[in-house]
Amino acid sequence: MLVFLTGASGYIGSAVLRALIAHDHSVTAVLRSDEKAAGAQQSGATVLVGDLSDQDLVARLAREADAVVHTASGEHVDPDFIATVLAALEGTTKPFVHTGGIFTFGASGEITEDSPVSPPTLTAWRAANEARVRASTVRTTIVAPGIVHGRAAGIPTMFVPDGDAPVRLVGDGTQHWTTVHVDDLAELYVLAVERGDQDGYLVAASGHNPTVRELAQAGVDGQAGVDGQAGVDGQAGVDGQSAVQASVLAESAAESRERLGTDFADALLLDQVATGAHARSLGWRPSRPTLVDELRSGYRAD
User: Fold this and answer.
1) Terminal CA-CA length for the chain
2) Which Pfam families match (predicted)?
3) Fewest Cβ atoms nearer than 10 Å: which of 141, 155, 157, 301?
4) Domains delineated in the chain
5) Residue 4: exposed, middle, or buried by beta-carbon count in 10 A (0-12, 13-18, 19+)?
């Protein structure tokens, strides 16, 4: 298949590009600079230097492709992009795979595709766009990734120590994050393209749901080269034990909001658990290392 891919130079999009090529699909990508285009070309894409705000270009590439995958989702990009792609694909069987996110479901101990939505302010803008995608007669699938990790990038880099500076928790660190390796996630996008479901929705979660405290400690252990069980400093009596190490620092939710910004902190403070069971039932097989394992190994690029 010829796939029109957005975000091909980004964290998720570059992994999707590699996976599509590995599965013998052809990829056309739009990137905003020659520098970004060069990297995507090296990975096997046919690249046009342009902008997703050019709706004539978007419409043409959507019509020429056999499928569209949108990983460059953004608040100011999506409304026009979605409208243009849906119009271009109307009346065809070409799939459109759109990117959502796990934050959409708010705090929940058992997130599935049928869970009620309660997004934080950070991602509340997604709701109207996703509703438009799902209401279309086009063959659409929304992929909602958990916290994405792998290749020494993404949000989890906050748990990689910087010299002697402490690794800070987000809040008290008791909240769970649902996670997915970027390369496993890319395989799910390929599966979504090849299935071409009508109104598909896939929670992309490996089933690994560590607490933030576990992640921070794994990062400290990775720097030290040990798999220890050191304690948490900066907050007396954490877990009912005396603090024994100053490399991990707890903080209040208010302190996290001040440090990270209110909207971002509120999203990271969500307690979320998901298994990705539905995606597995369709044949998805996540197999990469867990985030805890990667952090304990030093969170290095492959």
Assistant:
1) 28
2) NAD_binding_10
3) 301
4) 2-153+179-207+272-289 (3.40.50.720)
5) buried
